[in-house]
Amino acid sequence: MESDEIRAGVRAAIEVVAPGTDWQRIEPSRPLREQVDLDSLDWLNFIAEVGERLSVHVPASDYAQFESLDSVLAYFGAARAQTAVGFQSAGTASAGSLPCRQYVVNGTTVTVRPIGREDRDLEADFVRHLSTEARYKRFMVTLRELPEAKLKYLTEVDQIGHVALVAVTQRDGATALLGVVRYVVDNTGTNCEFAIAIDDAWQGSGLAGILMHALIDVARDRGLKTMEGIVLTNNARMLKFTRQLGFHGARDPQERDVVRVVRSL
């Protein structure tokens, strides 16, 4: 029966993301994260896991609809009841499209959208205000000011072979850049390498997970097969983050200071 299959898929996803959870003690109408130990990234991974098990694509713009077990079951029940065409028209991004969506993160409205050349000053200011440690973990250099050529490379992207998304908000009447995520397609045309940077004050807010899920959605929709990245071996937080996203790490004997993380799309 359809409802039993959906419930089984949700239960299996909880067991993957939060092993050891007592399914029988979950109250369907109460917020799920009050009952199951899920951080912000675990929550995103839980929704993605249910979607994969039930063959339902969940656009990131729909994540706000999930709170309780009842709301999760209702969403996937409605999605499975529609035809593939109906569900596509209900909000699934078409292949090749780029997101432009709003989220509420820690009580602040944040917009995720493609980066553009007009963001050059925002990018420069963003990097300028990163801590020395954060700049090094992202760029593997400690320069406070990026060279003009580097800023041009980071903001004047074609959004095809080089895709970049930003998270921005309004602060004191001006736009502030909170995070950037990007990937570059390799010479095979089937794989890409990602990079991400988040404002220090927004570390641990869940914003990084939102950006990475949006980027992974774009790469998958465009037919890419794998995504990989390079992480410093001493960046334990980033290594945990990528593991939560389904990346697997592999040490390069030629590069002892970094770990290459890879995920199938």
Care to describe what's here?
The protein has helices spanning 2-17, 40-54, 69-81, 84-89, 120-128, 132-139, 148-155, 207-221, 236-244, and strands spanning 101-105, 108-114, 162-171, 174-185, 191-198, 226-232, 248-252, 255-264. The radius of gyration is 19 Å and the shape is globular. The longest helix has 16 residues, at 2-17. An eight-stranded mixed beta sheet has the order 1-2-3-4-5-6-8-7, sandwiched between helices. With 265 residues, the chain is α+β, with helices and mostly antiparallel strands. Helix 1 runs antiparallel to helix 2 and helix 1 crosses helix 3 (69-81).
**Count of individual domains:** 2
Total number of helices: 9
Mean pLDDT metric: 81
Strand content: 15-25%
Q: What would CATH call the homologous superfamily of the largest domain?
A: Gcn5-related N-acetyltransferase (GNAT)
User: How are the strands of the biggest sheet laid out side by side?
Assistant: 1-2-3-4-5-6-8-7
Encode the helix/strand succession as letters.
HHHHEEHHHEEEHEHEE
Supply the CATH class of the largest domain: Alpha Beta
User: Which regions contain 5 or more consecutive residues with pLDDT less than 50?
Assistant: 83-95
Helix percentage: 25-40%
What's the end-to-end separation, in Å?
30 Å
CATH architecture of the largest domain: 3-Layer(aba) Sandwich
> According to CATH, what is the topology of the largest domain?
Aminopeptidase
Class based on secondary structure composition and strand pairing: alpha+beta
Shape verdict: globular
